[in-house]
Amino acid sequence: MRQYKLGIAVLSLFIILILVIVGQAGYYVYDQVRVVTYEQVLEREHENLEEIEQVEFRISDSGDHRFVFEEDAELIQRLIEEPSEMGLQKTSGYTSELRYMIWFSPGSLWIDVSEEKILVGTDMYRVTNRNILFDLIQETEEDLEWEEI
User: Fold this and answer.
1) 93 and 70, same structural domain?
2) CATH number at residue 142
3) pLDDT tens digits, residue range 72-103?
4) Does one domain contain both 24 and 86?
5) 41 and 29 share a domain?
6) How far apart are CA 126 and CA 22, in angstroms?
7) From CA 46, how far away is CA 48, in angstroms rounded?
8) Which helix (H) or strand (E) holds 101?
9) Whether residue 47 sits in one domain with residue 20
10) Is 114 exposed, middle or buried (0-12, 13-18, 19+ CB in 10 A)?
11) pLDDT tens profile 29-79
């Protein structure tokens, strides 16, 4: 009888372990396939987007290293609002193709941008439709007063 109870206890623990592993794997797959918006990601990463007063752009692309600080409230709003409905899907890995780095302050919101991917904090996302943020930065790039790093 004692061995029977021990066997049931071991089997129960094994089943619980399997359920935990399957649950974690299921969540990982769900997290990788769901599409979120740029707005949802920003709201999760920054407590109050209305407080942002300054943005720093950096370009790091094949020998071209420049930066600029901007306090233009209209530009900051455009960077937050225009791409708000852009679809993002979490992906694994890091890519060296990131061209633009954007730092919003106050706060510690970093966004690295390429044509197809965006890194927000430690999460890499694949853009599922047109990368409005990348296009917006490229449009704005000529109007900014860049300094060499």
Assistant:
1) yes
2) 3.30.1490
3) 888 889 998 999 999 999 887 766 677 888 88
4) no
5) no
6) 25
7) 6
8) strand 100-105
9) no
10) middle
11) 665 567 899 999 988 888 778 888 888 888 876 666 777 888 888 888 999
